[in-house]
Amino acid sequence: MSRKFSSFGTTNLESRAREHPADIPEILEELQHRKSKAARQLADRLLQLKGRPFPPEPKQEDLLNVSISPGSQGDSGEKANRARPADWQTRFQFPPTPEQERAVDLFLSGRTMKISAFAGAGKTSTLKLLAATAPNERGLYLAFNKAIADEAKSTFSSRTDCRTTHSAALRDVRPRYAFSKDKWFNSLNARQLSSIWELKRYNAGPTALEPDMVAFLIIRAVRAFMQSGEPCLLASHVQLMGKALGIIPSAKVALTEYVFGHAQRLWSQMISQGSEMPLGHDGYLKLWSLIEPKLAYDFILLDEAQDTNPAVLSVMKQQDCQMIYVGDKHQQIYEWRGAENAMETIENAAEAHLTMSFRFGPELANEAGRILKALGETNVLLGNPALQTRVVPSGPSRTVLTRTNSMLFREVMDALGEGKLPHVVGGTKDMIALLRDVDRLQQGESGSHPDFFGFYNWREVEDFVAGPEGEHLLAFVNLVNQMGRGALWRAVLAAAPDEADADIILSTAHKAKGREWTSVRLADDFSSVKSESGRIPYSEARLFYVAMTRAQETLVVDPVLVTAFASNLAPDADIAKEKAVSHRAETVTASDPQVSIAKPPRTNIGTPGAMKLSPALSLPKSKQPRSPRRKRILGIF
């Protein structure tokens, strides 16, 4: 007999029983397989109901009046043995600021807390201050990536365990499951799944989806579930994309149901010991959330909490120790991949604010503060009075930040055309993946990149971007058609692998998160984010704020652009509704022979200068390479 609720934790089973009393018999059957004390207690409570309604959950005010023993989470007074050390004012490079002292006071109380830190406001140094007051306690610092975790290991006390969330998850779940190394760590791609399951072509109305495309949608649905906080896979985790976005509405419903059923089958095989279907990194992170672990620490520091994986956040919410959520709600830039802003969603937590940036001076703080005010922030961003940061409309800059990958390609080509050797932050792997698909599609072969999956030639892509669903790819397709894939390949391969060797540093705003440079210019594509009604989505304003605040000494940005982002913002959901209405009203389709692929652009926000594109990419003779390596790289042009 199948176990419908086998993936549910005990807490989730109780919630299910409250919300769906009809499921209680099946929940009781599931609890018979559980050995934990919590499972037995829940089974006893459900048996005692005998058809009566579930008792109401305690009110918040009742929870706040519960007596909490010293050393546990809550407003219980200072935790035992925590104190500022005797050399508090001299131990660190700089003495703590009043705002940091306030954060330390809250930490000493043992309460769940949030530290809201504006860009460059000393977040990491504040966390070290907290840990220094609890030298005899076990702490866990959860970092956004491995590089940050490794750096933290060398600066935090030995009693503070510094890890990524994946590292913490694997340590807990691996002893519980007798999976092979390949099952734990291997990944699964669409072509592999299509072959293993021998999937057939799916006819979605007049549109046929090849087996690889169907497999891609199945894997994507499971990935969305694994990154979510949901206890079981739902139909809402199915996300159509690529060619599937262009099928008729009725066919989308049927396709969603088909993909959902196969996604359930895939997840079942991924967690089955009898199947070789790989689980992968997202998979064991999800298992971690489903087993509801209690972590053996006295306090947990969750960094970058504004972009938390919901599966991770569900684990954090279950902990009995003191939780410290650290981040800036205005720097959430990964909601498009399901990240949850814990700095907004965590309630009933004490809050400390770090408002003075140590990265830049008052002039940039004032300009960035205009964006924050438009986003609803009431605290004022302060600049470091010891620094002078200029905000200018034009001028040279060593670093350029773009909003999109298509503009990143343009900036690489512009740099080479001016005789400058560029470096791309994070490497050129993503750019190369896009170009490989362009090669395949222009040669009549299918693509594998998420944006191109399901298309089987370049003409299909061109037709797709002529419609509203393909608008996000339009700039890149026009760039390829304008410059040619050969010129793009030469530009990408010429990029310097090391930042120190480059004349100019290029990055998307997303890849620039957590970085800082002496001078930064914001590329022209930030000017193209207004909706047809002239409003800017909150998410774009947050990304612009992140990009602005990477500069230390000079920020080159159009002042008209800053003014636009400091006014007339709107929630993303409102902009999405506006676009949906606009799309339904459009009568011209991509099949109309009069339609050109290059749509007339919407009115831009600022007054960006013209692109300096050079199809021939000829280098000025006066610009001589400074090293043999530079000469080799630039010589390919």
Question: Can you characterise this structure?
Answer:
With 637 residues, this protein is an alpha/beta fold. It is 40% helix and 11% strand. It contains 25 helices and 16 strands. Strands 3-2-6-7-1-8 form a 6-stranded parallel sheet. Helix 2 packs antiparallel against helix 3 and helix 10 crosses helix 11. The longest helix is centred in the middle third of the chain and has 22 residues. The protein is globular and about 70 Å long. 39% of the residues are buried.
Give a topology summary.
Layout lengths: L9 H10 L4 H8 L5 H13 L10 H5 L33 H12 L3 E5 L5 H10 L6 E5 L2 H8 L6 E5 H9 L7 H5 L4 H8 L4 E3 L2 E3 L1 H16 L22 H22 L9 H11 L8 E4 L7 H8 L4 E6 L14 H4 L4 E5 L7 H13 L15 E3 L6 E4 L2 H13 L4 E3 L4 H14 L15 H8 L8 H10 L1 H10 L9 E5 L8 E6 L13 E2 H11 L2 E6 L2 H7 L3 E2 L1 H14 L42 H7 L3
Helix pairs in contact: 2-3, 8-13, 10-11, 11-12, 13-14, 16-22, 17-21, 18-21
